[in-house]
Specification:
It contains 12 helices and 15 strands. 43% of the residues lie in helices and 18% in strands. Helix 3 runs parallel beside helix 4. It has 2 domains: 189 residues, Response regulator (Rossmann fold); 138 residues, Response regulator (Rossmann fold), CATH 3.40.50.2300. With 386 residues, it is α/β, with parallel strands linked by helices.
């Protein structure tokens, strides 16, 4: 006969299972499925991983106390695009042909998304590019929507911060040599000129580059008074490390795409003092922000970044649209144009500009890396005014 004490873990597990069933909603029907096209492998895989953390936290909220979507659980079908336009096109064809997919999220970069946009438009399936800042993304058709701040706003804001607030008069710009990077660079150069600054050098680099020494020598020889980076956090951290080795000690101002604890983790002491901006700042006292940060820390034991926040916001936004207007492809499309007042970590309250199909009114926080973390900018110029 077995020792009764050996049965205790089994009984506990059984009781735990019964308790879980008691709190789990009794779903009335099959799940509502959102398709996700994004990088899970390849050079941009870390961004897909950041998305997933935000998605999962939001799904817990929607399907837990939120009760799902009209008695149905909300689920994601995440397909790995590797941030490659060829893969995003194949995924678009798959999603459009699958009646269970009611809307699509992604892809990570605007070029990968825009390659697939004609397929989503023809298939009348909403393509929600929540990290797609290219000004032309939502011009692909009325089924393209985004809650990402457009480069036409983001890049001028960054340069205004660098020139007007921080005092740079002769910046050099290093940018990803992609459609996103080149468009941002052109907008940055135009804004700098309008503000009376002279961009003394512009240098593009490919996403896979790791050695920037020759580029930085050319930048150094142009004698800039500061550097503007149009980068993501991984390449931005690597460039900043190499600028210090190359003897470039001028202030570095980086676009908000670097805003992540991983930028500091990868850059180490070299990124101390870097200036940036973000539409998400975890110290903002708004209830939506503080609730998100608290639950993110509790689940993942780390600080959230803007990629986590945008992914989280997007799930809650689409859940609100479907609860209010319905779950068909057409109802989601029409509901996005009507929805107003959805609580948002990034925007406070969400409403779309129907003409551009983008959310208006994002908050922008000026920040700096100090003491190994992002803090609010103290208002002091990087270059003392003469």
């Amino acid at each position: 006969m077995r020792d009764p004490s050996t049965l205790l873990p089994t009984r506990r597990a059984l009781l735990a299972g019964v308790a879980a069933l008691a709190v789990r909603p009794a779903w009335a029907a099959d799940p509502v499925i959102l398709g996700v096209s994004g990088p899970l492998t390849g050079p941009a895989a870390q961004y897909g991983a950041q998305w997933k953390k935000g998605f999962d936290l939001a799904l817990d909220e929607v399907n837990g106390s939120g009760g799902g979507i009209k008695g149905r659980p909300l689920a994601l079908q995440f397909e790995d695009s590797q941030n490659d336009p060829r893969q995003s096109v194949a995924i678009a064809q798959k999603f459009v042909g699958d009646a269970k997919i009611v809307a699509e999220l992604g892809d990570f970069s605007s070029p990968a998304s825009m390659a697939a946009s004609p397929i989503y438009q023809r298939g009348k399936l909403v393509q929600f590019g929540f990290t797609n800042s290219h000004p032309d993304f939502t011009k692909g058709g009325d089924y393209m929507w985004s809650n990402s701040l457009s480069q036409s706003e983001q890049s001028p804001q960054l340069v205004t911060y660098a020139v007007r607030d921080l005092g740079l008069k002769r910046p050099a710009i290093l940018h990803l040599n992609t459609d996103w990077g080149r468009t941002s660079k052109d907008l940055a150069v135009a804004t700098a000129k309008a503000l009376g600054a002279e961009v003394v050098a512009t240098e593009g680099y490919m996403p896979e580059e790791r050695d920037f020494r020759s580029t930085l020598v050319r930048v150094r020889d142009a004698k800039p008074d500061g550097l503007i980076l149009i980068s993501y956090y991984s390449d931005g951290a690597l460039i900043t490390r190499q600028t210090r080795v190359a003897g470039l000690t001028q202030p570095v101002v980086a676009i908000g795409s670097v805003y992540s604890p991983k930028f500091i983790e990868l850059g180490g002491d070299a990124v101390e003092g870097v200036y940036t901006q973000s539409n998400f700042f975890p110290e903002e006292p708004r209830a939506e922000v503080q609730d998100f940060v608290k639950r993110f820390r509790a689940r993942y034991n780390e600080e959230p970044d803007a990629f986590n926040a945008y992914a989280y916001d997007t799930i809650l936004l689409l859940a609100a649209v479907m609860r209010q207007y319905g779950t068909s492809r057409l109802e989601i499309h029409d509901g996005l144009a009507k929805i107003k007042g959805v609580p948002s970590v990034i925007f406070g309250r969400v409403a779309f500009d129907v003409a551009t199909r983008r959310v208006a009114g994002a908050n922008t926080a000026n920040m700096q890396v100090k003491g190994g973390k992002f803090i609010a900018w103290d208002g002091k110029p990087a270059i003392p005014r003469s």
